[in-house]
Amino acid sequence: MREGIRRLGVEAVVLVAATVIFLIPFALMLLTAVKDQTQAVDLDFAWPTSWPVVENFMAVVEARDYVLLRAYVNSTVITVASVTLLVIFAAMAAFVLQRRPGRVARAADFLVLSGLIIPPAVVPTIWLLQALGLFKTLPGMILAEVAFHLSFAMLLFRAFVAAIPRELDEAAQIDGCTGFRLFFRVIFPLLRPVTITVILVSSVNIFNDFVNPLYLLPGDENATVQVTLYNFQSQYNTQWNLLFMDIVLITIPPLLLFVFFNRKIVAGMTAGAIKG
Amino acid sequence: MTGQAARRRSAYPYALYLPAAVVFLVIFLVPTVMAFYFALTRWTLFDSTFVGLDNFRDFLAEQNLRVGFVNTLVYAVLTSGLKVVLGLLLGVLLTSKLRLRGFLRSVVFFPTLVSTVAVGITFSMLLKPQTGLVNQALALVGIDGRDWLGDAATALLSVALVDVWKGVGLATVIYIAGIMSIPTEFYQAVAVDGGSAWHRFRHITLPLSWPATYSVIILSFIGGLRSFDLIWTMTRGGPGFTSDTIASIIYKQYQAGFFGLSTAGNVLLFLIVTAIAVPLNHYLGKRQVAM
């Protein structure tokens, strides 16, 4: 009985501590986002006296000639395009890497590892994209995101390909299905679970990326949501309500993914970490 | 044998590597290799003059730049150390028979998915000297808070703690996966011997979750060495240059138009990351085999 009460006490303490430490910042975000400007200055947990939710929302959306909307479009285009390419390229490469051991596979392994460890050389990347005519363009940004996330995606795909029996390949080969056809017709559909994981994890990472757009996509017309948010920080340094409304709007997409695919995301991130 | 090799060649053509290889080689590897040349030049993107090791000398000689090395190492050691300790504790806690376990796991993990810029801005607000919630809470218990981000003594440490807040969720789920994969027979054996909870932790959970520890250390150490976003949104390396890391110096030099110097910073970061990550990986990997 006493044991039970002590347990309950411990659980209560843990719950309160975790809530305070991890949820209070989010509560502050939400609460400040719906206050008016005068009350938002206090940055406290006072209940809003007025609820200018729509006004704050419109003010943030209309700011700087609808830069947030453009940023949302850009970020979406970058995320969708780079994740699509990433999934196809990484799955193909991981398949041949796992199935055909040898000198080439060892070299590929080494490159995957170096891609995980080496920090990208940013200014030379700018120089290269400039030479290709891709600097400050969405295609350039997309290719860069693909290159920087390939290693992680290949790790996940390779581990999953290893679990697909080779007999399946052989059966398909007897039917004359080899190479690209074997991959796209037989293997790729079987990779569905890990494909979903890769899509989720890399979408979140690419959508939240700040450093690479900062270097590779300067200027307002190509702004991504993270860079826009960063710029809003100095623009709204007295209007905390609008700043936090912006933060809330930008946090919604990953929040939605988290609500629907919590388990998948956690599994993907841990698998990537442990196999890395 | 040759027949099998031939079949393998036709079934798994190297052409499958092609798209990934082209993107990776062109966009990632070429700049990485070229960095070693550009780091030795005075460079404006359009033309470059060879200046030998001048950029590296500047990096190591100037106080404002040198401080970045120390800060980068302090930041990486501090964040990865705390993520290991707190991640392990939370991992043990969240694998025990706790009500609301699922809820708590979500709560701890969610910050991992929020953008670093958003986290940085929110915590800058929480840490404001007068109105910030942190200092108001400290005032309640009679502690006089300070200007955490504006004070050279606490700026880097404050950012590192926020980094831990954001990243400990990933460490925790890695530990949860590690702890859950420990066979229950081990715990049953301890229970038969009448071992305490501490005994159970010390002799089973701790040693057998070693692979998780290894992942958390490697992952957060490399991440810590490269970290930029959080520092840039919270302090921009300030006050002065006191919370600059190598990555923030790289950006500052790039903004100032010193592309060669910036790239030299990149090469130094590359050397430090490999000099630490490769032996660390080797050493920790060996311990894993020895287990």
Automatic annotation (TrEMBL), chain A:
Record localization: Cell membrane
Annotated GO CC locations: plasma membrane
Domain (ABC transmembrane type-1): residue spans on this chain: 72-261
Gene3D superfamilies to which the protein is assigned, alphabetical: MetI-like (1.10.3720.10)
Keyword Zinc assigned: no
Membrane topology value: Multi-pass membrane protein
Keywords from the named record: Cell membrane, Membrane, Transmembrane, Transmembrane helix, Transport
InterPro entries per record: MetI-like, MetI-like_sf
GO BP annotations listed: transmembrane transport
SUPFAM superfamilies: MetI-like
A family per Pfam: BPD_transp_1
PROSITE patterns for this protein: ABC_TM1 (PS50928)
Transmembrane spans: 12-34, 77-98, 110-129, 141-161, 182-207, 240-261
UniProt similarity note: Belongs to the binding-protein-dependent transport system permease family.
PANTHER family, A to Z: ABC TRANSPORTER PERMEASE PROTEIN MG189-RELATED, ABC TRANSPORTER PERMEASE PROTEIN MG189-RELATED-RELATED
Name of the featured protein: Raffinose/stachyose/melibiose transport system permease protein
Species: Nonomuraea wenchangensis
TrEMBL record, chain B:
Source organism superkingdom: Bacteria
GO BP annotations listed: transmembrane transport
Main subcellular localisation: membrane
Gene3D superfamilies listed in its UniProt record: MetI-like
Any one of the GO CC terms: plasma membrane
Keyword Transmembrane helix set for record: yes
InterPro entries associated with the record: ABC_transporter_permease (IPR051393), MetI-like (IPR000515), MetI-like_sf (IPR035906)
Residue ranges annotated for the ABC transmembrane type-1 domain, each copy included: 69-280
Residues spanning the signal sequence: none
Subcellular location per the Swiss-Prot or TrEMBL entry: Cell membrane
Pfam annotation, one family: BPD_transp_1
TM helices/strands, residue ranges: 12-40, 73-95, 107-127, 164-183, 204-225, 267-284
Membrane topology type: Multi-pass membrane protein
Keywords in alphabetical order: Cell membrane, Membrane, Transmembrane, Transmembrane helix, Transport
Family the entry assigns: Belongs to the binding-protein-dependent transport system permease family.
The protein's name in its UniProt record: Raffinose/stachyose/melibiose transport system permease protein
Species annotation: Nonomuraea wenchangensis
